[in-house]
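Predict the structure of Glyoxylase-like metal-dependent hydrolase (Beta-lactamase superfamily II).
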Amino acid sequence: MGSGIELATYPGLDERISVLRLGTTVDAIFVRTARFDVLIDTLDTPETCREAMELVGAERGGRPLVVVNSHMDWDHFWGNAAVAGRAAIVAHEAARERFRNGSVHEVLRRKAAEDARFGAVELHPPTLFFSDRIGLDGGDLTLELLHTPGHAPDHVVVWIPELRTCLAVDAVENPIPKVWSDDPADLASLVASLHRIRRLGAQHLVLAHGQTDAPSTMDRNLAYFEALAERVGALGAAPSVAPDDALPDGLRLTDFVEGIDALPDAARRFYERFHRANLAATIRSVHGRR
Ligand SMILES: [Zn+2]
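Done. Here is the predicted structure for Glyoxylase-like metal-dependent hydrolase (Beta-lactamase superfamily II).
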């Protein structure tokens, strides 16, 4: 069977933490505490999730399992069917609304039409909700779930103080994260979430995309948003960022982040879309709606 899931780790990362890597698509995380196992995100399909659980031996031994859905984006919770019924699935209360309002089901219809792999996916919602933070006491390790909106309204990160490790999921991304919408409030939330994560003082900052645990990624993300605001603020009027227009000189992603040209084409285009979204939110935030 081959979904392509494999185990990964980072130098110095505690052995109780396993990275469950689905190629370049997404990383989920498995944490083994004294009292229970915790799976942070269920990957893109129930089948992938089942294979991941087998890889870390969570299908054997009957240990209690707690599942966290970091947010309701497809690559982070579509595997829920593999664990529904045997574990509480914890998420922020805003995840409830995202699950209910239908857009996540619309994404499934679209992706299932494109790729047979998603044809058998059945969406299962989280079952346990919190508002700002909730702690899971595993005995040896504490997992603090912190609401960190901005990339998505329901986004949460997991902070493990004993290991100075933050599972930042999509709040921090290499090379850049993406804001939820062009509403200036979402941009402000994303930047505030980055500051909230920075205050934790993590030594390992584990991302879901970009395959790194370097805290410097967060500093670069913050510097990027600061530079965006500064450069857009220095313009007398709001520039056009219509999808078909080339971005003006000085406002391209390569003007803010190094190494973009070295990315594979698909990844470069992907992050250029992120950048356009961030830029649109910044322009509205600085110049108001046009
Ligand atoms: Zn993601």
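The first helix runs from residue 46 to 55.
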